[in-house]
Design a protein that fits this description.
The chain is of the alpha/beta class. The chain is 27% helix and 22% strand. The longest helix is centred in the C-terminal third of the chain and has 16 residues. It starts with a strand and ends with a helix.
Amino acid sequence: MKAIVLAAGKGTRLQTENCDLPKVLRTALGKPLLGYVLEGLRFLEREDIVIVAGYKREMVEKAFAGYPFAVQEEQLGTGHAVSCAREALAGYDGPVLVCCGDMPLMQEETYRTMFETHEREGNVCTILAAVCREDLPYGRILRRADGTFDRVVEDKDCTAEQKKIRELNAGVYVFDAKKLFAALGQLKNDNAQGEYYLTDVPAILQAEGGRVGVCAACTAEEMLGVNTPQQLQQVETYLKEVQEA
């Protein structure tokens, strides 16, 4: 098993006059956000976790020396970010987890459950989902009439009706590595953001006959990413509650 951690973001909305750190190096209770994510992946060997860095990558590489790194020079979307890890995983044929370096509340058990679900169901792609009553800006998981996976629609591309869907994409996946990198070459950027979305890959794989499953093992708290000072404060509140429990 291997993992790709997306950690190239600048975190513009988190930056202040006194702090222009890469987003994943912003701290919660004194620890970098990326540190929490890597702690959740401690069941994997360091050499099996590829960190995709970009903005001020030298700082990230120094802070987390000992991990293999890939570089995303331009921010062209999550699909492009994952493709930057292609060389680091050259020759690998097995399951690969793709997760985000700014989601510090994700638990080791959730990551493990994803791998187990992926293997048990024989999926080429397993999507982590959370059911949440709040109207959060996450992609919606669309299902067919028989309940099977159809596709993911990003929040900014959702219709008013699709926004009512409560099953949200947490942005964490397990893929068959070889099929993932083959599908990335088919991505197009004809969307509201003009980016290459990783969320388009499951539908590509399914159209090719692969099985795509949804693993609803995530809580609404776990999928909280840090993009604003308010979200950073919210994360710290949750972390304190966990420590005091």
